[in-house]
Design brief:
The protein is an alpha/beta fold. The chain has one domain: P-loop containing nucleotide triphosphate hydrolases (Rossmann fold), CATH 3.40.50.300. About 25% of the residues lie in helices and about 25% in strands. The protein has seven helices and seven strands; from the N terminus they run βααββαβααβαβαβ. Strands 1, 2, 3, 4, 5, 6 and 7 form a seven-stranded mixed β-sheet that branches. A hairpin with a 2-residue loop joins strand 2 and strand 3.
Length: about 210
């Protein structure tokens, strides 16, 4: 009976109100909606979960959203605690949402206090690239990539939840980068045998 690895990753999604964070994390093609009202009531946040396969691991992404409470002082340390990756989101059509990325980046590092801030996995998403055929955008791809380079070569994706642009690629990248973090939690479980002899009683348990 072989052992397989299941990894739980906590992913924090940050950005200004209206940039499309909730639409990204609740994208009906990518993620199953599993909201937790309990967490929303206690710390002003919701999370959804998504399982995917990354090499030899089954990865469960626990993706946390701010539930509309974008004023960072209201989020609390409990929201950031134990994060394995932080996703920063801005709207390519709203310059202020891009300019505020420095605030979100700094706020996360201050609240989460990762062991090594220089290597903690961030990813940047430039959202709503579908609007007006791209004619309304005010933040160029080059400007976003320059910002990422200045922050330690953060991966960057341009996305649209509405048009399903780069959603899967972005979250797969998130999982891969977070797996490189020492904070990732591995859970080992036994795989079920392919066949059981008729003489052997079948057990009804599952070692998870």
């Amino acid at each position: 009976m072989s052992m397989r690895r299941r990894t739980l990753l906590k992913v924090i999604v940050l950005g200004d109100s209206g940039v499309g964070k909730t639409s990204l994390m609740n994208h009906n093609i990518y993620v199953h909606k599993k909201f937790s009202n309990q967490y929303k009531a206690t710390i002003g946040a919701d999370f959804v979960t998504k399982e995917l396969q990354v090499e030899d691991r089954l990865v469960t992404l626990q993706i946390w959203d701010t539930a509309g409470q974008e004023r960072f002082q209201s989020l609390g340390v409990a929201f950031y605690r134990g994060a394995d990756c932080c996703v920063l989101v801005y709207d390519v059509n709203v310059l202020k949402s891009f300019d505020n990325l420095d605030n979100w980046h700094t706020e996360f590092l201050n609240q989460a206090s990762p062991t090594d801030p220089q290597t903690f996995p961030f990813i940047l998403l430039g959202n709503k690239v579908d609007i007006d055929g791209g004619n309304s955008r005010v933040v160029s791809e080059r400007k976003a990539k320059d910002w990422c380079a200045a922050k330690g070569n953060i991966p960057y994706f341009e996305t649209s939840a509405k048009e399903d642009i780069n959603i899967d690629d972005a979250f797969f990248c998130i999982a891969k980068n977070a797996l490189a973090s020492d904070r990732a939690q591995d859970i080992y479980f036994q795989s079920v045998p392919r066949a059981v002899s008729e003489a052997e009683p079948q057990s009804g348990g599952c070692a998870c």
